[in-house]
Amino acid sequence: SQQGEEDPQALSIQEGENATMNCSYKTSINNLQWYRQNSGRGLVHLILIRSNEREKHSGRLRVTLDTSKKSSSLLITASRAADTASYFCAPWNRDDKIIFGKGTRLHILP
Amino acid sequence: KAGVTQTPRYLIKTRGQQVTLSCSPISGHRSVSWYQQTPGQGLQFLFEYFSETQRNKGNFPGRFSGRQFSNSRSEMNVSTLELGDSALYLCASSRDRSTDEQYFGPGTRLTVT
Predict the structure, then answer these.
(1) What is the pLDDT of residue A91?
(2) Which end of chain A has a smaller Cβ tally under 10 Å, C or N?
(3) Which of B84, B74, B89, B80 is nearest to B62 (CA)?
């Protein structure tokens, strides 16, 4: 089974700064997705990057994928209080069931 | 279009009872996955249904079961509830899990007393 492992476990930054989270996985993937979860709520899909893509942007989000290193990073620029949440990566492979990692808890300080 | 809906949103049950949770996927989505989320174990995969067939299953005891109907709506059932089953149960739908993003419902918060 395929598990994404996020790093760091927790991150606190000042509002306006950039936040970077990393994800590592073990086997080959079809795509990798990032999700956000606000406290006690459902996950919200942020961005999907396919295995043949190296970088993708969506608003203030930038995701990179390095399949040779089996790693991905999520960059949130100009952070806002509303970005305070847990962030999960989900590496997808057609034949695997997905196991989410513990996520990165991001806290934006005012 | 309407998002994934889950009912009920909150539920309190007693140890030993059983519970059924419901999930209605986004229209056109045929895959429904269920997850259990607890503070200690994080987000754990329960099972996935695609076109009424269980396609994948996580490492949970047989007390946890599910099914999917022809309209893609899904239910999960937990029998003989234990205190440790207290959790947020999330369902997610997608067109086809391997290529499309998953859309999560708001979850059902189950408390077992």
Answers:
(1) 87
(2) C
(3) B80
